[in-house]
Amino acid sequence: MKNIELLIILLVALLLPILSCPMAQAGERPLRIYCVYHAAHGFRAIGRHYQKQAGISLQLPLHCRDHFTPTAQSLKEGDLYLTTSRASMAKAREDGLLDSAPQRIGRVVPIIAVMKGNPHKIRSLAELSRKGLVVAYPSTCIGNVALAIIHKNKLDGTVKPNMTIRTGNRTGVLNPLVAGKAHAAITWRCAIIESGRKDLDVIAIPQEQNIIDPLLIATLKSSPDQARARAFLNYLAGKAAKEILRAHCLAGEQAAE
Prior knowledge:
Layout: H1 2-20, E1 31-36, H2 40-54, E2 58-59, E3 62-63, H3 70-74, E4 80-83, H4 86-94, E5 103-108, E6 110-115, E7 135-137, H5 141-152, E8 165-166, H6 174-178, E9 184-188, H7 189-195, E10 200-203, E11 213-219, H8 226-236, H9 239-247
Parallel strand pairs: 1-2, 1-3, 1-4, 7-8, 7-9
Antiparallel strand pairs: 4-11, 5-11, 6-9, 6-10
């Protein structure tokens, strides 16, 4: 009998540190982050690292840049809100959905994508006006940003007529470029990383000509555990998270690329 009691005590002593470790707790509730589509690829990488470090997984219900997902307001079950739209973040704040002030953790940068080696020698936005060039741009929000960039630089009458292919999302717009149907495509810099393609070159749009949106995040009042939500914000301010964002071209340092 004493041997059994000693065995039980020994097992408890061995298992207690494991069971109390956050990495091993079964059923740990994931953090739910309403994430803008074009940041999702980078944040999935963030999620993999955060789970290894803190034992907490991320759920990333996606939303469009200019709309706060209706489920965030109806279900009231999200922890954080991530967007590149100042207007959408301001609306969420106005509606009383935010628990913390928005934090700027990075940026998304529009670029011109061309095939490797830049066979058509495109070096600037203005050169997209050359006769015979075909420019592709997405049907999604970056397509609207592309049009706004053209308008900002007073190129509506020269470049816009060459923007004849509007198709796909941030990565799908690369398909007509690769297929030889377009000579250039306008998309996010982070979309090139997301696509995984190695046969493309990037032409930077100078910062003064570009429209660069901030990557904003805030905790939501609907979070059942504000301490965990804030702990994730603290993690995002750390070196590891910044390196992951940089690798996915979402970091602020790449604003002028």
